[in-house]
Amino acid sequence: MTHYGDYTQRQTGMYRITTMLNDAQAVQAIATCRHKSFCLKRRLWTVEGLPTDYVTEKSLIPCLEPCALLLEFARKAMRIEQQPKLELSMDDMATIVRALQTALKHPALEVREADFNAPDSPRRICLVLEKLQTALKLASPMETE
To answer: Which among 7, 30, 31, 27 is positioned nearest to 19, based on CA atoms?
Structure first.
């Protein structure tokens, strides 16, 4: 079986940057890009921290290695990680989470499937939503202390 890290190590040119994603970032990008609402194939290749897809959630069509769509999404995810970070309050983050959830329920119809540069790309929205929800979960226990 192919491992995500081994696969990205073989990449050159514009996809070389995908090797820079750490395991947690790669898991977020892979889980988001290959969410069952976007991809029907059952992932059989591996990545640390993410089990292969279950038969009950995906079709029987196997996905043997990362596809070009995933590589492009991983490239965009790494470019986003390289940008300066913004500090937000917990209330601001909760508001943004709600807005992103609404945007996913009512996606923009004019966005092309693999246009990850578009801010209203459903996969990009899912990635940001996942990051915010993870940050909120990590920050919540500290607030109760």
So the answer is: 7
Residue 47 β-bridge partners: 50
Sequential DSSP letters for the chain = --BHHHHHHT--GGGGGGGGS-HHHHHHHHHHHT-TTT--SEE-SBBTTBPPPPTTTS-S-EE-S--HHHHHHHHHHHHHHHSPP----HHHHHHHHHHHHHHHHS--TT--TT-TTSTT-HHHHHHHHHHHHHHHHHHHHHHT-
Domain ranges of the chain: 4-143
Q: What is the secondary structure of 6-20 as a DSSP string?
A: HHHHT--GGGGGGGG
User: Would you tell me how many other CB atoms lie within 10 Å of the CB of residue 61?
Assistant: 9
| Phi, psi for residue 42 in degrees, rounded to 5 | -90, 115
Tens-place pLDDT, residues 78-114: 999 999 998 989 899 999 999 999 999 998 888 888 8
What is the model's pTM?
0.84
